[in-house]
């Protein structure tokens, strides 16, 4: 699976998100830089098919298919969209996510799941007080429980503090498991990742191959040879909340 953003932007004059292109794919972890309070979430929504950009295109395996993108890519911990309330206990967060995944979601189910991933001692701790690396591990593990999920867009893990090496190693582990991983970070975290050469952190905003749009084959019929335009598929900007 390969997700590509071609010159996407959002808002008047790109205020919500300036024009950018990036790419991430299965089996690799990439980071993307997005500053200010709003832009990381906007980028995450667009990259996971949950918001339509005002300019540019988003493709999954070279096709513009927002519904398929939403189904196959989870949006994790995006502020004001998919991040859990900081005062909810970790067991409560797990129970809710288990329900969305179609699994048993009682408090007992939640505690058993936490025990399986090694965090049973944190069950009654508010998620806002959980170590940043443990938070990323738990939320990503919950995200991939959903049927069909093949990739994760993780939004601003650096906002919770801690050293980037913790959550970056976890993101890399998910990539090693075959998932497509995009981590959206701020400038300080990006600089730190670039200095951690052993992580081989790669910016997703590297060179992007030009988008080639399919055109109909020319015909001898003048009426059928009129020029056509590619229309952007319409999607509900609210999309899926997670």
Question: Would you write up a description of this structure?
Answer:
This protein is an alpha/beta fold and 242 residues long. It has helices spanning 39-47, 66-72, 90-100, 107-116, 132-143, 164-176, 187-195; strands at 2-10, 17-25, 28-33, 55-60, 73-76, 151-155, 180-185. A four-stranded parallel sheet has the order 3-7-6-5, with helices on both faces. It has a three-stranded antiparallel sheet with strand order 2-1-4. Strand 6, helix 6 (164-176) and strand 7 (180-185) form a beta-alpha-beta unit. Helix 3 packs across helix 4. The two termini are 19 Å apart. The model is unreliable at 221-241 (pLDDT under 50).
Features:
242 residues; alpha/beta; 4-stranded parallel sheet; 3-stranded antiparallel sheet; 19% strand; globular; disordered C terminus
